[in-house]
Amino acid sequence: MANTTVKGAIAIHGQNPQFLVETVIRNRIWESNYWKEHCFALTAESLIDQAIALRCIGGVYGNQRPTEFLCLLLKLLQLQPEKEILIEYLQADEFKYMRALAAMYVRMTFSAVEVYELLEPLMKDYRKLRYRDMAGYSLTYFDEFIHSLLTEERVCDIILPRKAKRSILEENGEIGPRKSRLLDAMEGRSDHGSDRSRSRSRSRSRSKSKSPYQSRSPSASRSRSHSPSDNGRYLSRSPSRSPSRSPDRSRSGSISPDRMDVEPTNVS
User: Fold this and answer.
1) How far apart are alpha carbons 118 and 129 in whole angstroms?
2) Residues 195-204 pLDDT 10s
3) Do 21 and 29 form a contact (C-beta atoms < 8 A)?
4) Does 227 score more than 60 pLDDT?
5) Which domain holds residue 149?
6) Helices 112-119/96-109 angle, 10° precision
7) How far is CA 72 from the centre of its chain?
8) CA-based nearest residue to 36, from 81, 66, 80
9) In a domain, 218, yes or no
10) What integer is the mean pLDDT of 1-14?
11) Count of domains for the chain
12) How far is 59 from 41, CA to CA, in rounded Å?
C-alpha cells in the first residue's frame, strides 16, 4: 500500500519510523491531496524535485491541513533513505527548504551525537524562511530553525524525540566542546587590533629616528633664527652699516657747493 513503510526499514526509537508523527497529523497527511497526487511512488531521488519546489516550512494550517513540508517529511520517514543521501541533502545549500527538510529528518531519526555534529554547523546559515501555521505566513531564519530543533521539544507541530543534552555528552566524552563563532570573531578582532597598534608604534619610532630636525631643541632653533648667518639672509638687530646715498650728493654724482672749502689732498 502507498501508506506503508518500505520493507526492511529499521525501527527508530523502538518503533515504526512513520509513528514518529502523531496519529492525527499522520492521518490528515494520508488524506491530503498533495500526498495522493505528488507523493505517490516517490523515491529518494525523485523526492528531490518536490523538495526543491517547496516554498515554506511549517506544520498544519487552516482547517488542520498539513503543509507540503510535513507531507515530504512523512515520505522521508516512510522511505528511510541512507545516511549518505541525507548528508547530500544537507550540503545542498542552494536549496534552503530541502536543507531544512533534511535537518528536520536528521533531528527525528539520528542519534544525539550525530544531531549535534550535523546540525550545529548549519547555524551559520542566516537566510530567511517562510513559516506557515494556523495564523498564516510569518518570517523566520534558518539559524533560528536549527536552534529550535536543538533546544525545543515541538517544532512544526511535531513532537520531537527526546535526546541527551549537550553538556552530558561532553562530560561523557562523546562529543567535543562547541566552538563559538562569535568568540572566535572577537578574538580575531582583538589580535588584529593589537597588531595594528604595534605597527603604528613602530612606524612612529622609525619616523622619529630618521628625521634630522626632530632632535633639535626649540631654543636652538630660535637662537639660529635671530642670529645673523654667513650668507647674509638673516638681519641682525644692530643698526645697518650698509652704504647709503649721501644727501649731499646729487644724482649726477657732482660735489655740492657746501663742500668746496675742503682742501684737496695732494696726490703724488
Assistant:
1) 20
2) 444 555 455 5
3) yes
4) no
5) 17-171
6) 160
7) 33
8) 66
9) no
10) 82
11) 1
12) 23
